């Protein structure tokens, strides 16, 4: 008689980010602007996704919803299996959740001008209660990872745009967020430095298992993305293609809370 082997338990991969039927209307009456219309999207741990689209299409609005910086008019935002929006929300304190679980990078690095590169990263750790030698070690680890450790004692005004953006990424990663959101992070950089920064985002997704969503107008770096979304007049579509690590391959990854 053939032995019947027990089937393995199905592995449930919870998306790092999921928007379900998300719409956003700014204003009301004649002044109403429908910035997002019924957006549905899932982003898995370890995936790097690009978000393209013309000016005014709704890209930043989508990022604001995903980053819990604003509430959708309709629909649900899920982060790591937790519902963040609406009456049934399981994430109550958006600010605390954001601080611990979401990293943001913007077009301008927005570093504190009177703090050195190292101190800018230490500040992000301090805000989350990490101080002393472990915080210093963590900050240096991040600056090394982003290849900017040699500039740790310089003020932002003494750094190039690319170096400042690397420190801003180190700061965004300080608390090991499972979700990293970036709004045109390379817009102020020349194409070579822009690609270097985009490559760093790709490395972060691969090494840490964080889901990375980048709004960009830079079509020259599209080969670096696992998935490419296009926004037009508030509607989101996914472009076929992306890199080799699409769908389940990158999605099967677990977020690695210990690296870098
Ligand atoms: N706070 C607001 N109040 C009213 N309308 C807004 C607000 N924020 C954005 N909008 C409108 O919502 C629409 C989408 O804006 P959004 O900033 O998301 O577009 P975008 O794709 O990021 O554009 P860009 O590439 O120019 O940054 C636009 O018509 C914009 O004018």
From TrEMBL:
Record InterPro entries: AAA+_ATPase, ABC_transporter-like_ATP-bd, ABC_transporter-like_CS, ABC_transpr_LolD-like, MacB-like_ATP-bd, P-loop_NTPase
Residues spanning the signal sequence: none
Single annotated GO MF: ATP binding
Domain ABC transporter, first and last residues per copy: 17-258
Record key words, sorted: ATP-binding, Nucleotide-binding, Transport
Pfam families: ABC_tran
Disordered: annotated span: 238-260
Keyword Protease: no
CDD domains: ABC_MJ0796_LolCDE_FtsE
Keyword Nucleotide-binding found: yes
Protein name (record): ABC transporter ATP-binding protein
Taxon lineage: Bacteria, Pseudomonadati, Pseudomonadota, Gammaproteobacteria, Oceanospirillales
